[in-house]
Structures are given as structure tokens and as C-alpha cells.
Amino acid sequence: MFASTLAAAAEPSPAVVRLWPDAAPGAQGTADEDIPKYTVYPAASASHTGVLVCPGGGYHNLAMDHEGVQIAKWLNGYGVTAFVLQYRLGPKYHHPIEMNDAKRAMRMIRAHAREYGLDVNRIGIWGFSAGGHLASTISTHADNGDMTSPDTIEKYPSRADFAILAYPVISFVSFAHQGSLENLLGSHPDPALVEELSNEKHVTQQTPPTFLFATSDDSVVPVENSILYYQALRKANVPVEMHIYEHGAHGVGLAFYDPILSTWPARLADWMRSHGWLTKPQK
């Protein structure tokens, strides 16, 4: 007991990195909730792969433990460096703030890839629920950076090289999760914006390879969100793998407590391994 307590005490705290050195664009205050940032969990055995983790919470709060810290430690176990994102939330903040926070995080990871021991072409994104919507937004609305910007970070691409979406919110026009919609876009959003952020409608050949996990009886975010995105990826000839379990509540994370659902992370590891993201790239 004493030895384990001592080891935990000796373990260094993960580094927390602000996405902007000063006030973030559009900031409405200086409280913690107004400061977008990510927490870095470096892998002890590096695969040169990094993943930005976007916890869910309906764009209203963040499930930082079972959809953040636990995910980072799982990734570390496979030699992947994790970056757990704390993005700004509604109803205080609306689109495009959340998207821009995630884009900035992707740019920063890529800009500092060498320092993190990462390959700039092995940076993925993993989102849960509303965080899955954010991750799919990055997947479908990425950009190549602004080479004219005086901010060096803004010159880097915001794209993801692969995406992992767990019981994600995808669509705002079909099977929508109303809470996520209202927190992100407000009570009376512009229909054009609703269409723009229904991400199944914006998949192209440039959308990254994607892994989807969901459950059929999710009563919060209907499984059809994942199915719609899967179909769009297939139509665009984007590599995709999807696992739908018959039973399981929303927000299960890695589902350690469930002997059936807890098998899904192994399927994800297989998928990542099959693409080479869990092994060091050949020189």
C-alpha cells in the first residue's frame, strides 16, 4: 500500500498547455472555462502517433474522467501520446468557437510534433458523443492552415490523419441530439448552419479513415448517427470500420465494468494496428 502510494506521488503531473498564450479569440472572461487547453499524456514507448481526445458532454460539460483521462491512459498503454482537450462550451459559447478550439489543438500538436516525439502524419482525433460530433467536424471541415498568418501555429493544417468516434452525435437534421444542437448553435439556429454541421453531408475523399463504435439501444444519441456517417464514408470510398453492439447505455467510455461492451477497445486496437498506427514507422 505504502509503495503504491509513494509511486503515485512520484508520478509527474501531466503538462497542461493553453491553446493561445493570451486570451483565446472570442473569450468572454478569464475563468478556467474561458481558457481552452489540452493536457499532454506522453507515451513511455512511443509509436510516433498522437491522438487528440475530445470528451463528450452535450457541448455543455466535459466527461473528463471516463472520456478523457481513462482514454489517455489506454492510448499510453499502446505507445500513443494523448492530448485531452478542454474546449469551450455552450450555452456560453457557440459555433465556431468549439470547432476553432479543436482546430487550434490539432495545429499545435502538429507544430510541436518533434518535441512530442510524433510524426506529423500520424495525428488522430478521438471523440465521444458531442465530442464525437466535434471530432467528425474536424474530419469534414479541416483546412490546410493560413500561410499568411503572423501566428506560426495558424500556418499548420488542422486535419486529422484518422478519427475514432464513440457513440457520436453526427447529424442535426436526422436523429439529432437536441441538447448538443442547442448548446452548440442556440435555440433558433440558422437552418443553413444546421445543414453545415450535419457532418454526414460533408464527407469527401479527404475525410480521414474512421473507426465507429455505438450501441443499438442507446436512448440518448440514436445509433443511426453512426450508421449515416458510415454510409457516407463508404460512398466516398473512405476506409471505415464500425462495431455496433446490441445493448449498452450511452456514455460507457471504455466500458470496463461490462464483460461484453469492454471488448470494443480491443477491436479499436486491432483497427489501429492494421493501419500501422501502433508501431513505429519505418525509416
How are the SSEs placed, and which strands pair?
Elements: H1 2-10, E1 15-18, E2 37-41, E3 50-54, H2 65-77, E4 81-86, H3 97-111, H4 113-116, E5 123-128, H5 130-140, E6 162-166, H6 178-185, H7 191-196, E7 210-215, H8 224-235, E8 240-245, H9 264-274
Parallel strand pairs: 3-4, 3-5, 5-6, 6-7, 7-8
Antiparallel strand pairs: 1-2, 2-4
General description of the model:
By secondary structure, the protein is an alpha/beta fold. It has one domain: Rossmann fold (3-Layer(aba) Sandwich), CATH 3.40.50.1820. The protein contains nine helices and eight strands.
Uncertain stretches of 5 or more adjacent residues: 1-9
Beta-strand percentage range: 15-25%
Number of spatially distinct domains? 1
What average pLDDT do the residues reach? 94
Q: What kind of assembly state do the chains in view correspond to? A: single chain
In short:
Helix content is 31%, strand content 15%.
What attributes does this structure have?
283 residues, alpha/beta, 8 strands, globular, Rossmann fold, single chain, 9 helices
